[in-house]
Queue: 3 jobs
Job 1
Amino acid sequence: MVEGIKKPTITIGLSPAISVSIVLEALSMLRQTSQLSFDLVEAADSVEVSKMIREGSIDFGILRDVIPFTNLESE
């Protein structure tokens, strides 16, 4: 990579119920095969993560589906 060029960064929101160690391990493997960088943001709960997605402050979120989020797309 050329010095001074910033890697694309994906911001991921997590609810406290998600195991950060598993996410870090998966992202570590992904970084080995891509030019991506990741920022993790832990929110207070899944509702806050969904709010962050709607506001555009994170690129995507990993959360528990304990209440229906009718305005979010899930895959």
Job 2
Amino acid sequence: MKIRLEKFRGIRKAEIELGTELALVGQNSGGKSSILRALNAFFNFQEEREHFEASRHAFQKTSTAIIDLEFSDAPGMCDLPRTAAGGNSIRIRLKYKKAPNWELFENGVWQTPPQGFLETLKAHIRYVYIPVGRTETVFHWGKESILQEAVMTWMKDYTKKRDNISPKVADATSIIKERTFKGLSKHLRGLTHLNGSFKFELDYSTPPDYGLLIQDLVLRVVDGKTSVDISDCGSGTQSLAAIGLYSYLAEAFGRVPFSCRSKCSFRPLSVRMRRGFSSPMLSAAVADCRSH
């Protein structure tokens, strides 16, 4: 796989070939995160759209950012036009100035890609970006929490063949309803002071299942008798935990030949490529970077 970048964030021009594993190592503001963000823009554009629109990804205000990816040895089942007839390479680029513009290279010419090309590509290769800021969106329980998504995904898979948990939850909630809700409903009816045979009934809005008990979970690091919330741990431990959560979700979504690890105290940034597409080992990495 080859990455070509032009005028994206602080990168004037760069060309990188990926092997089975690649480490991005360099000084601060050297462009490491920019490469990862460029890949995220290519594979998951909606996550980066607001940054494009706010010109945070612009090299200069009037410049056009280009993110160009070439996949070598694409599998035959990937039904996308090749760069050359009879070849195995697929080359696609994203150009952004005021709006995104996608192009596919075929027989020496850049053309409009077929409808649904990204979905076709993602059936064989996916990219997961692990952001540096991780506490709020990753570990705190809530609608956009990665921890919550991982737990619910695991539970869904665990109960896929047979859900032995929800019936027990339903039994427990029936006891609560009969012993407590019923009394409150009756008391409310008495306070209404209206004639008629109607009554109130307090009930669950949806049939209770295991989701009722999975609320406000926290991830803790346990070492012997010591237990510490992940949000109170160091950045290195948080990074490794975040990598585990993102990796599990990527794994659960299907084939994930391509993933990324963000900043971590214990190891450099790295990009990993798994089975599906192959490419030569790293041969060159040249970037003209400026402070951004």
Job 3
Amino acid sequence: MRIEEVASNIEVIEAEVVTETSGTALTVAAPVASGISTTLANQADNDDHLVDLWVNSKGKKSRPGYARAARFFREFLAGHDRPVHDLARVRVGDLQAFIAHLETRPPEHPRRPAKPGEVIGANTRKNIVNAIKSLLSFGHRIGYLPYNVGSVVRGPGTAATVDKRILTVAQVHRLLDGGPEARNRAIRALSRVPDIRLSHLTALTWGNLTTTDGGGLAFVKGRSQRPVGVRIDEATWGLLQALKAETRNAGADDPVFPNERGGALEAEEARYLIETQQRDHALVSLAYACAGRISELVALKYKDLRERDGGAGTVHLFGKGEKSRWVRLPKSTWVLLMAMREENRLRGFDVGEEAPVFRSRKGGHMDPSSAHAVVKAAAARAGLKPGTSMHWLRHSHASHALKQKAPVHLVKESLGHSNIATTDVYLHIDTDESSSDYLSL
């Protein structure tokens, strides 16, 4: 059939979409060729199928967020003043009402209920609305929805808040402070000595330690509560002596491993130093060094780490949209990662190429919520704002690098931004310099 013949068979179908708030009629003109279906047959069988198709069109790591947004929207529609059980019947007013509803909806936390009066944050509301507009647009494009009502609804705006989520260099250093390294290394080494239990470590005083040829003895309470001498190897003994040399109070009755108040460590404090302190310190350091997203960091395997000349390394990150990037790491961060790997090897954990870099207590990959809690705890110890999160380190990396004259395209690549305009935001939030500095006032 020639083009002219097709054109002669086209008629225009007009329909009206009426907004409930203003009553304004929007005329939608759709050219339809005679004998040709107005929908793409069988692209989606029902709303559930549509949502599945849409979610699966997104990047793997983003899918849970998109599925959650769709659930919020459909739950709202079902319980709305004018219940809607079919996405094809959604009107502009329904979407506008949903946007208003989000301003009072409490958030969903994975491990705790929402606090009284707590509501979804402005940025989260914006992301949810943009996701629903994407769903409606997708449904219209594949012919399942007759109209894309999202195209005529403007989502909520948000104030620029990135500048409030950037730490100073001094604050980052406080956050990265892993505590006294000599103490941490010594307690981890001593915990690997046979017959030394957690209760022994918390009760150990300098008077319980005696030097011997090729190491030393630690006198601890045995099963009968009588002192028993446990032999300490030369390497571990050397760490204990190095700790003693830099300890201000090292009298016979002073604890070998004091807490911040000067008293003996509690059992949980000792357990943290032995099992997770090194991991947590390496995680926070890597987050700042490579500007990785929390989901990218907890998914790392040792095969994603590669050493380079000079004792430094690179990390392979898998980000949004299934895109990957290599980011160079400074020597200080690389040393932390390799020390953690060696410690895990000594403790009998799997450190092969497929093993997780940041392991959970069960041996698998660390959960994102656990990684988030690590940064929260580190921020509390450093006296930083309660809202400090892993993503703040990403913002801080970008801001500090650009302030040190790093090329914007390199920062873009490190952050994994698709559009350099996203990275440009960090160029305009430096309050240390302004055009007003050049005025004669």
